[in-house]
Structure formats: structure tokens, C-alpha cells
Amino acid sequence: MAGKSTYMRQVALNVLMAQIGCFVPASYAEIGITDAIYTRVGASDDLAAGQSTFMVEMAEVADILKHATSNSLLILDEIGRGTSTFDGMSIARAVLEFVADTKMLGAKALFATHYHELTELEELLPGVKNYNIACKKHGDDITFLRRIVRGGADDSYGIEVAKLAGVPNKIVRRAKEILKQINDGQMISLPASEKKKAQTKADDSMQLSLMPSEESKVMDKLKKLDVNTLTPIECMNELFELSRLAKDT
């Protein structure tokens, strides 16, 4: 939404045009020799081959890492988003470390991610630099400035984008409540309205369980019966009575 994918593709196109001697739309550009440009952008599946979106993503990443050299340009957009958060973040970090380390691959790369935890690699790996696309926030409204600035992003704007897309306000408000609970390290609780419903249901169940039912009447009658003292006709009468009570429950 902020334009990072467009920016990354633009870089790849400028490098390609420079390689073939075309005009590069920039006031200044220092572009080294590149033997190949590899991209992993977007999300798509291959249902005919039985491959999920994440499987396609991983297959493309594997192919890139097998064939890229230190002179290649890699455009990697959102690695690891097709699986669980921790799995995806672990894969993304491992790929980034491999690409950045000159002893492993050491290729030139643009690596876009929503995992804020990866921004710490700027302090750990030489050559890694954080950039983000500037945004201005006015209350719950945001404006994307389409300008690249140094440093990692200080926040995510997924909920604001969902609001811009037309997601109902009730869901947007609830998403903000959940996000705050997660950021505060709390367990995610039910909305106030659902809490009230759950409590009312629990109270009703308790109230009903305390009231005598027809079923308990049948059980009470059975417990009081002494079959050893009953005549055959009395047994028959008691059986008819129990059957009537059971049918009424």
C-alpha cells in the first residue's frame, strides 16, 4: 500500500536498462555489473501441480538461492508470509542472513518484510541497511508520502489499510483492541458483548441445573422403589408410571 513493491521493481528495471545501455530515469546512479536479476514478488499458487501459495514461494526462493551469485541482484518481497508467523519470520531471517553474508552469497538485494524483528540485522550484519517508506499519521488516518527514508518503520499500518479498503468499522475497532492486548502481552479476551452473552449463558445453565426436572423425578422414584416388596401387578403399575414420567421429560 505504501509503494515498497513498486519501488523495488523500479530499481530492478533501472538496473536492467543500465545494463543494456538505455536511459536511466535518475539524476544520478551508480550501478555495478549484474549477471542476473532474480525476483520473488507477489503471491500465486499452482493448483494443477498441487502446490500451495507457500510451496510456490519456497520453490522460487530455493531456485534463486541455488543460482544467484555475488554479482546478482535479488528482489525479495515478503518472504515467509504464507505460513505461521514464527515459521515465516525464521525462514525470512535465515534467507536474509544467507544473502547478506559475503562468505555465503553476498549478493546485492532489496528485501521487503513486515517482520519488524528483522530490522535488528542492521546492527549485526555488515552491509545491511534499513529503509522505509515515509508515512504521516493524523489520528486514525494515514497518508503515504511515497518517499524512501533511512531506518526501520516504527509501526505497521495494516489495520488502517483495512479501514481504507472498506472493512466494517466494528471489525476495525475490534482489531485495534486485539492488537493492543497483544502488544501489552495480555491474553486476547472476548469482546464486551460476547463476554456478557457467555456469562448470561453460564448463569442460565447454573440456574437450570438447580431446578428439579422431570428426569430427576424419574430417578427419585426409582431410588425409592423396593422391588422386593412389590407384587407383580404393583410392579406393572410402577413401570407404567415411570414410563409416563420419562415420556413427559
CATH class of the largest domain, named Alpha Beta
Radius of gyration: 33 Å
Can you tell me the CATH architecture of the largest domain?
A: 3-Layer(aba) Sandwich
Give the strand content: 5-15%
The N- and C-terminal alpha carbons lie at a distance of 61 Å
How would a textbook summarize the main sheet?
Answer: 3 strands, parallel
Low-confidence blocks of residues? none
Oligomerization: single chain
Rounded mean pLDDT is 85
Using the coordinates shown, work out and report the CATH topology of the largest domain. Rossmann fold
Query: How many beta-strand elements?
Result: 5
Summed up, the domain count is 2
How much helicity do the residues have?
40-55%
CATH superfamily of the largest domain: P-loop containing nucleotide triphosphate hydrolases
Read across the widest sheet, the strand sequence of neighbours is 1-2-3
SS-based class: alpha/beta
Number of helices: 9
What is the overall silhouette?
elongated
What is the succession of H and E elements?
A: HEHEHEHEEHHHHH
